[in-house]
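FORM 12-B: Structure-to-Sequence Request
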């Protein structure tokens, strides 16, 4: 490098540094080097979750908000059979492109061009096949709800993650509602019982509550913790009510709705207060936990808890088929 060129680069660098200094200590801009950027690959552009994650991550790409993780590539499919999912793929693919995302022609292409994975495909029937490819690559993966469409596939996914020693976890964003996390931390004393609610629309291709009721059931488990031993379900065209009995005698109730306002929340009966969970905090609290997981490889939700959540919903479906009879949860040992 010539002396003249070196002086010019120094003046340019000093000028930029001076500009930020002049803006004062309250102005911070962190621009990571290309080597520091972490590439996220998304499988499935058939859900609004994918778009929300792309917008949040790529908007903050040049900051420390999400530790420089950004969505670099996505594979659109995704459901090819569920109309409410596949009908949105073209729209969401275009939105991904507008946010700087490369569209992959296959999962293999995606895995060759990312560091970690968000498996977002809305159709849980595809998750076992898709997740297996990710596990074999060894890349850490978050699997969005539902883990799978049927219980046997949920168990297989966790068994394969263990076989290939690939870190994974799954969770609903409702788990990270601030007040729910406060309850889980016993900020109001021990939890004596709770009722959680969410929409519970059903798709014939999935075990009933796996499709959408998972949101409210996961909120219930966030509050109550594990230990449910049996459930009974009452079901009508518009409503599901599942009453779970925990091994310590506590009662937890999930109410799933299919009409009225599309809403989420719960009531917690704790030692020191009755707590109303009525403010949904969006996707960002979950996304922050996903990024921590990508950094550490430590799942914030234990496999045993997620497996019990799905065993709860599977037992509820069996109770419904048997006209509300009590059904014992399946015991799952990986």
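FORM 12-B RESPONSE
SEQUENCE OUT:
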């Amino acid at each position: 490098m010539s002396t003249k060129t070196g002086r010019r680069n120094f003046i340019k660098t000093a000028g930029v540094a001076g500009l930020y200094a002049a803006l004062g200590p309250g102005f911070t801009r962190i621009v990571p080097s290309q080597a520091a950027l972490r590439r996220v690959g998304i499988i499935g552009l058939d859900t609004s979750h994918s778009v929300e994650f792309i917008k949040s991550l790529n908007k903050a790409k040049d900051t420390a908000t999400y530790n420089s993780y950004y969505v670099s590539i996505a594979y659109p499919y995704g459901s090819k059979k569920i109309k409410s999912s596949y009908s949105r793929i073209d729209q969401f693919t275009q939105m991904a492109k507008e946010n700087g995302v490369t569209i992959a022609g296959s999962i293999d292409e995606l895995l060759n061009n990312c560091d970690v994975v968000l498996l977002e495909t809305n159709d849980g029937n595809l998750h076992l096949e898709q997740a297996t490819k990710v596990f074999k690559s060894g890349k850490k993966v978050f699997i969005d709800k539902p883990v799978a469409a049927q219980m046997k596939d949920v168990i297989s996914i966790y068994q394969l993650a263990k076989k290939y020693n690939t870190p994974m976890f799954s969770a609903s964003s409702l788990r990270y509602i601030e007040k729910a996390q406060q309850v889980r931390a016993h900020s109001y004393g021990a939890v004596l019982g709770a009722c959680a609610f969410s929409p519970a629309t059903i798709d014939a291709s999935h075990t009933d509550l796996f499709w959408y009721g998972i949101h409210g059931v996961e909120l219930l488990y966030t509050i109550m913790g594990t230990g449910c031993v049996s459930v009974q379900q009452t079901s009508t065209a518009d409503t599901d009510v599942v009453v779970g009995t925990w091994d310590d005698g506590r009662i937890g109730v999930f109410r799933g709705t299919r009409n009225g306002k599309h809403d989420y929340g719960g009531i917690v009966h704790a030692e020191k207060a009755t707590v109303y969970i009525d403010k949904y905090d969006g996707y960002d609290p979950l996304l922050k936990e996903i990024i921590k997981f990508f950094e550490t490889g430590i799942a914030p939700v234990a496999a045993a808890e997620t497996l019990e959540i799905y065993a709860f919903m599977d037992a509820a479906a069996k109770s419904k088929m048997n006209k509300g009879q009590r059904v014992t949860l399946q015991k799952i040992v990986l």
